[in-house]
Specification:
Helices cover about 20% and strands about 35% of the residues. With about 120 residues, it is of the alpha+beta class.
């Protein structure tokens, strides 16, 4: 089956894996656990990507006051490089562990014919 191409993203790691308000999370999706990355970041050298991601993390952590709605305190970030690997960052935007195995919590994929639909 054909899958949608993977786009690297920044995933927010939180104090709680499950939302405090399940219905609210179902309505909102898990959007609040994602941070947008600039288009074309994957074309930069890895060291430059890490620098940019670190800046984005520091800005996100400051503007969110270290909290993720429905999931509690932010404990770190995962810069997802592929569907199953990520580089882990601290809340200060420092690389903690490079290219480790990673699977995010709370994602389901349904297939209809040749199309995949992600529920997050």
């Amino acid at each position: 089956m054909d899958e949608a191409p993977f786009i690297p993203d920044l995933y927010v790691l939180t104090e709680y894996r499950r939302p405090s308000f399940i219905t609210g999370a179902a309505v909102m999706g898990v959007r609040q656990k994602r941070v947008a990355l600039p288009e074309g970041i994957d074309g930069l050298p890895l060291s430059e990507r890490y620098r940019v991601v670190g800046e984005i993390i520091r800005r996100h952590y400051a503007t969110s006051h270290g909290e993720c709605p429905l999931f509690g305190r932010i404990t770190g970030y995962a810069y997802r490089l592929t569907t199953d690997t990520a580089t882990m960052f601290t809340v200060e935007g420092q690389v903690q562990a490079e290219c480790i195995a990673f699977r995010e919590a709370g994602v389901a994929v349904a297939r209809i014919g040749r199309h995949s639909i992600r529920f997050e």
